[in-house]
Amino acid sequence: MVNLLVGLAMGLSVLSAAVFWVHFQWTHDRKILERSHAQQEIRALMETLVHDIRRANFYSIAITPTPTQDLICPSQFCGAQEDFYIAPQQILFSIDRNENGLKENNECSGFRFNANQIQTKTSCQPVVWTTLTQAKHLEILAFELRLQCNQYSQNLGGLLLIEIRSQIPTEKIALTLRRGVRLRNTDSRSRNLTSNCTDIAT
Fold first, then answer.
1. Strand 139-150 to strand 199-201: parallel, antiparallel, or no bridges (unpaired)?
2. Higher pLDDT, 60 or 125
């Protein structure tokens, strides 16, 4: 009887250790998967930002300016704040997406940091902001923008520096991702880049 009880106790101990190990391994694997998913999500988000911002103020060069248009600003995609504006946590810009030279309601774009999420602007009037991230999967801690202007050549355009800091809600370890985007569209000189610059590239 004693041997049976000892054997049963040892068996339960081994089973308990096995259950603990399986649970530990499952938790560890889940954290690795969550971390990997978060890294992929933040990289995909950055690619979305870079892709759109790179096209800021683009308009078809086939469009001929009309006599009533400003020669300094020869298109509908420059001159207004919604066409190009940068704040530390927000950027506004317009894009001639269908290349017809007319600024349509879905051609006002931009990104901003709001309530630990990054949002994109999807219309001119009324202004609509759509969330790109979900806080339950990826919490955005910071979204910072800095525009460097070249003091020697306007033709080089500005260099927009983007920094995103994020973390997984279940893991309080911050992940920082940085990218630079060169703004080189044909009407870059029509924008008052200097007023948006935070520092000068040397």
1. parallel
2. 125
